[in-house]
Write a structure and sequence with these properties.
13 helices; transferase (chains A, B); 43% helix; globular; seven-stranded mixed β-sheet; pyridoxal phosphate (chains A, B); 15 strands; Aspartate Aminotransferase, domain 2; homodimer; Aminotransferase_I/II_large (chains A, B)
C-alpha cells in the first residue's frame, strides 16, 4: 500500500548522527565521531544508590507524575542556576527528556512553517533537524570566533523578522568556541531592541577548562527573564541514559511548553527524576564534574599535540576552552566527506563538517570528539587520522 | 514583551487531565477521576532488582542508545505480541516514552493541517489533544456498544477521505467497552478497501476479566502488516514512572517515526529499557498481571454494586469486561460538569464526560475509575457520589 504522509517528513533526514552511532558501534574503529561522554567515568555507584533510594522511597515515586517535572528537582535546578547568576522561579522551569526535547517542544510552541530562525554557521546538527521538521527557514548569521557579528545580525533581524535566534554560545557544538561577553551583550541588546526570543542551548557549560574565563550565560544577562529561553542537560555530567534535561524562560512560554509536553509524552521518566534528586542531595556532583573535566582536559591536550604535529599548510583549528570537540579546517581543496571512507578503512572515524552547515558547507571541515577515547586510543587514532589526511592531501596536490 | 507563538498553540487546552491530577492530589477527596493503576500493587521488589541489574550490568547501559529502542527489549515485545497472534519483526517495533508519545510521533509523520481522522465518540481525551495540536479535523463515527457502525463509517470514509481511523477497541477509555470480532473484521475490510491506516491504541488489553472472551486485536487481523499501527504500554502492568510504551506497524511508517523520534528526544530512557528487559527475563509479569487484574475485578464489582443501588430512572452503564473505567449515563436533564463541584465539596471526584467528546457532548455522562481506590474507599466514595447525584437529581426535577 502507498501511504500518505505529512508534508514535514520531506524534511526528515536519515541523519549523520544515526549513521555515526552505527560506526561507533563497530569494534575495531577508534571513533572521534560521536558526542559521547566517557562511560568509564560515569558515577555508577552514586547512580545505583540514587535509583535504589528512588524506587524504595514510596510507591508514589513509581506512579504517574506532573508534566512540569518534580518540584524537588526544579528546586535543585533553580539553586544550581543561581550559581551561574541565572535567577529564576521553579514555575519557570520545566523538566524535559534531555535538552533535545527542550528544543523540540520550544519549536512546537513557537514556529509556523516559513518562520525564520537565525543561527551561527555551522551549528548543532540535531537542532537543525528539529527546525527543518517544523518547516522553518533557518538563516545563518556571519560570525567569527567571538560570536555573531553585529552588523550582519542586525541587518538580518531587520530584513527577515526572525522568530528566534538559536545559539550555543559556550563551548559550542561543533566549533568548540566561546562567545565573548561583549558579543553576548550585543546579542541581548538587539534581542531587546527588536523583540526577538533567543534560545541559549548550553549542554556543555559545565565542562569548562578554565572556570574563571567563562563569560556570563545569556540567561544571566537577561535579568528580567524576557528574551532568553535557556536549556541544559545532565547527559554530559551524570549519565545520558537518564534523559534528563530542562528548559527555563519567560513563564508564558514555559506554560505553553508544558501543554505541548503533556500531549507529547505526559511527563519525563519520574524514576530518573526522583533518582536525580537523591543524587543531587547525596553526591558531590560538582567535584565529579571537576574530576571528569580534568580528564577531558588532558585528552584535549593529547589530541591538540597530535594536531600540532601535522605539517600541512592551511590546517587550522581553535583550541577548545571546554566542551567536547575540536573543529578542524583542512586545506581548502580537501573534502572530508570523501576522507571519512578512507579513515574508517584505516580504523578511525570523525564527523565531516557538512551536515552542521546551514548555508553552503565548507567541505574541508571536520569535527573530532576528545572525551570518549582514552589517551592511548587518542594517540593511536590520531596517528591513523594524520596518515589518512596526509595521503589524501598528496592525492589532491 | 508580547511573544509570537505558533498557530498550533490555539488548539492547546489546559486540559481536564491536568486539572484532574490536581484534584487527585488533594488529600481528603476520594478520586475516581484519574486513570491510574494502584501504586500499592506495584511490583516494587522486581522493579528494584531490575534497575539494580540494569545499572550494574556495564557502563554501556548508562550511555546514549539507539533511537529505535534496545534490541533485547524489542525482541521481548515481538514474543509477547506473538501470544496475541500479532506476528511482527523487531525492526517493525519502536520503543516510545509511553504510548502517549506513540500517538504523538505517529501524528507527526502522518498529518497535515486539515487532514481528517475518524474516531469513536467519546474517545481518549489525550489523543484528541494530540490530534488538535496537529490542526487536524477529527470526525466522530456513529457507534454502538460493539464498535463503529458500518454504514456511517463507510459513508464518512467515502465522503471525507480520512488519513486515519483511531480506535481503542479493547476495554476502551472512557467507555470501557469491547468491540465485537465482527465489527473488527468490518473495520479492517473497509481499511483495506479504501486504503486507510488504522491506529489501534491498546493500553488496557492485558487487564482482561475474562481472557477467553477477548477478541483478536486489529493488528492480529492485519496479517500482512499493511493497515494497522498498534500501540501499547507497560504503564498499567508494570509502573507508569518508567514511561515505556511501543508502536508497531508497517515498516515504512515505523522508519519515519524513528526519524521523528530522533528529533523529538533522541531515544527513550535506556536505564528503564534495560531494567524492563531484566524484569521480563526474571519476573513472572503474566502472573503479576493476573494478580492485579483479579484485584481490579473485585473493585469493579464493588463499584457496580453501588451503581446498581442508585434508584434513578435513566441511569445506565456498561459493565466493563476489563480495563479501568465505568462510563455512566445519568438522566438526560443532569449536567455532570456542574455536578463535579458539588461532588468535590462532598469529598469525591470523577471526570465529567464532556472533554471526551468529538462532536456535541452528552452533558449527562461521567467516567469512574475503579483501579486506584481500595474497596473501602470505593464504598465510601460511592456513597458520597450517590448522595450528590440524588440531591442534584431532585434539584433539576
Amino acid at each position: 500500500m502507498k501511504y500518505g504522509f505529512s508534508d514535514r517528513v520531506r524534511y526528515f533526514d536519515s541523519s549523520a548522527v544515526r549513521d555515526i552511532l552505527k560506526v561507533v558501534n563497530q569494534g575495531n574503529v577508534i571513533s572521534f565521531a560521536g558526542g559521547l561522554p566517557d562511560e568509564d567515568l560515569f558515577p555508577v555507584e552514586a547512580v545505583k544508590d540514587a535509583f535504589q533510594k528512588a524506587i524504595t522511597s514510596g510507591n508514589k515515586a513509581l506512579q504517574y507524575a506532573e508534566t512540569e517535572g518534580l518540584e524537588a528537582l526544579r528546586m535543585h535546578l533553580v539553586e544550581r542556576m543561581k550559581r551561574k547568576s541565572i535567577y529564576r522561579n521553579p514555575e519557570d522551569v520545566l523538566v524535559t527528556s534531555g535538552s533535545q526535547q527542550a528544543i523540540d517542544l520550544f519549536s512546537r510552541v513557537m514556529f509556523n512553517p516559513g518562520d525564520v530562525i537565525l543561527t551561527e554557521d555551522p551549528t548543532y546538527l540535531a537542532a537543525l533537524q528539529v527546525f527543518a521538521s517544523y518547516e522553518t527557514k533557518v538563516v545563518a548569521v556571519d560570525s567569527d570566533q567571538d560570536g555573531m557579528l553585529k552588523e550582519d545580525l542586525e541587518e538580518k533581524i531587520k530584513l527577515l523578522k526572525p522568530k528566534c535566534i538559536y545559539v550555543v554560545p559556550t563551548y559550542s557544538n561543533p566549533e568548540g568556541k566561546v562567545w565573548s561577553l561583549e558579543r553576548r551583550k550585543m546579542l541581548l541588546e538587539l534581542a531587546e531592541k527588536y523583540h526577538v526570543v533567543v534560545m541559549e542551548d548550553d549542554p556543555y557549560g559545565d565542562i569548562q577548562f578554565d572556570p574563571e574565563a567563562a563569560p556570563s550565560s545569556l540567561a544571566a544577562l537577561d535579568e528580567a527573564n524576557q528574551y532568553v529561553v535557556y536549556t541544559s542537560t545532565f547527559s554530559k555530567t551524570v549519565v545520558p541514559a537518564m534523559r534528563i534535561g530542562w528548559i527555563v524562560g519567560p513563564n508564558q512560554i514555559i506554560r505553553l511548553i508544558a501543554q505541548a509536553k503533556q500531549a507529547a509524552d505526559l511527563h519525563t521518566n519520574s524514576i530518573s527524576q526522583h533518582a536525580l534528586v537523591h543524587l543531587l542531595n547525596d553526591f558531590d556532583l560538582d567535584q565529579h564534574v571537576r574530576n571528569i573535566t580534568s580528564v577531558y582536559y588532558e585528552r584535549m591536550k593529547i589530541m591538540k599535540k597530535a594536531l600540532d604535529e601535522i605539517e600541512l599548510e592551511g590546517l587550522t583549528y581553535l583550541e577548545p576552552k571546554g566542551g567536547m570537540f575540536f573543529w578542524v579546517n583542512l586545506p581548502k581543496e580537501m573534502n572530508t566527506t570523501d576522507l571519512l571512507k578512507a579513515a574508517v578503512d584505516q580504523g578511525v572515524a570523525f564527523v565531516p563538517g557538512k551536515p552542521f552547515y546551514v548555508g553552503e558547507a565548507e567541505g574541508n571541515t571536520l569535527r573530532l570528539n576528545f572525551t570518549n577515547s582514552t589517551p592511548d586510543k587518542i594517540e593511536t587514532g590520531m596517528k591513523r587520522l594524520v596518515h589518512v589526511i596526509q595521503e589524501a592531501y598528496l592525492q589532491v596536490n
